[in-house]
Amino acid sequence: MSAGPARRSRTRWWLRRAVVEATKVPSWSLRPASREPRRVRLLALLAVRDEGALLPGYLASVGPHVDGIVALDDGSTDGSAEILEAAPQVLEVLRVPPDRAAWEDVAAHRRLVAAGVRHGADWLVSLDADERVERDFRARAERVIRRGGRLGATAFAVRIRELWDDPHHVRVDGIWGAKTQARLFAARADHAFDERPFHGQKAPLQATVLGGRVPFADLLVYHLRMIEPAARAARRARYEELDPQALAQPGVGYAYLTDERGLRRRAVPRRRGFDDRPAAERAG
Questions:
Q1: Which of 65, 177, 199, 205 could disulfide-link 172, Cβ–Cβ 3.0 to 4.6 Å?
Q2: What is this structure's pTM?
Q3: How many alpha carbons fall within 13 Å on the CB side of residue 178?
Q4: pLDDT tens digit string along 128-149?
């Protein structure tokens, strides 16, 4: 009798390991993203409010790796909606009136997922305006989806890299080197949403596997918002005001956002960095 739980535990461990190993993508095996055959229709989901300064870089970084972008503008007054509507990569811009009572993250994500399904997506990737993807993101994502599909995986967690003090270094000590979020997932009309008001999972809840977790894939997403100390302090203050008891992040809280004890940085790898320059600058 006692061998049963141990055997099941070993089985879960091996299956989880198999999913992770199957979704790793060796860099030597990749061709440039522009020549990689695209087997799925991948759309990006983007929610913004007054992010006009970040959008050109987002479009330049994310646009080449997806088959279209579905965006939601939350009452911007800085021209964000107009920038998106003028971008050829953007399939649709959903609008929220500027006089809305409060931002509702789950409601916005519901609208974006529904629009992605309506536009014929096979897979969706949720990326914010202050995020950039690695140069070979699409080629790697295609391989992740293909390999993971053999094991029945329908969602993947990507690695979030926090740029720190400059655009060429990421923080890697402690929690910073282990940040992952479930951002890449199969499009489905019956998407079960995480109802938490913030820090919720973007992937469908029914996509989780053993232990209630989404398998990890070796895909890099770079986060720009934390580069400057002032931005880190503002982010901490915002979340401490929204969630003073840290109910959304029990045991973690928000003080870590400005805590630099044990700080270690690492250079962004040349072959796995990001490029958010306009196409004209890249050509030059």
A1: 177
A2: 0.86
A3: 3
A4: 999 999 999 999 999 999 999 8
